[in-house]
Design a protein that fits this description.
Number of helices: 6
Largest sheet: 2 strands, antiparallel
Structural class: mainly alpha
Oligomer: single chain
Shape: elongated
Helix content: 55-70%
Distance between the termini: 41 Å
Order of helices and strands: EEHHHHHH
Number of strands: 2
Strand content: under 5%
Strand order of the largest sheet: 1-2
Number of domains: 2
Radius of gyration: 23 Å
Length: about 180
């Protein structure tokens, strides 16, 4: 048996020349397995930062895009809260969707600003794209029983904000996924 630094073999740390190693994980790797499995890989992917070889200007641009997109998420949340308060709260399904979008945007914007991980970037991009998609559906074929147009108050402004935010977050996500 390999000498360990603790008495409990389930949490043992194997002493090696490279420093302590988690014994169960080391045994799993010796049997041909990967350390941590799928959950570990997804967790690492969600915490991805730009690759160390990424030029500083690209990293700064991606960070600026994320921060601007976070502000745009809060802006579209404010627009939807305003629209909810001035009348959409009386529209059965759409009113609920507007207030949920406002609440989630007021939460997601700061989380994206603070977190800046691939997961939050993807969620933010999906939030903006789905909001723009809902508006386009409403203006063309109708959405949840409502058929508006892009001439209603705040529609065009909201659409521009949401498309710009989705575009910025898509670019930031591409930088996070890029590996030189």
């Amino acid at each position: 048996m390999t000498p360990t630094t603790t008495a409990d073999p389930t949490t043992a740390m194997v002493a090696t020349g490279d420093g302590p190693v988690n014994a169960p994980a080391a045994a799993h790797e010796q049997r041909g397995g990967r350390r941590g499995g799928r959950a570990f890989r997804l967790g690492q992917l969600s915490k991805r930062k730009p690759a160390p070889g990424t030029p500083l200007s690209v990293r700064r641009l991606a960070l600026s895009a994320e921060l601007l997109a976070a502000a745009l998420i809060v802006a579209t949340a404010a627009i939807h809260l305003h629209l909810y308060l001035v009348g959409y709260r009386h529209v059965r399904t759409l009113g609920v969707l507007f207030i949920l979008q406002a609440i989630s945007g007021f939460v997601l914007g700061p989380v994206l600003d603070v977190g800046r991980h691939l997961f939050t970037v993807v969620v933010g991009a999906l939030y903006m794209a789905s909001s723009a998609g809902g508006l386009v559906l409403s203006a063309t074929v109708g959405f949840v029983g409502i058929h508006d147009s892009l001439t209603v108050p705040w529609a065009t402004t909201s659409l521009v904000i949401e498309l710009l935010g989705a575009l910025l977050l898509g670019g930031a996500g591409a930088v996070l996924l890029h590996r030189p």
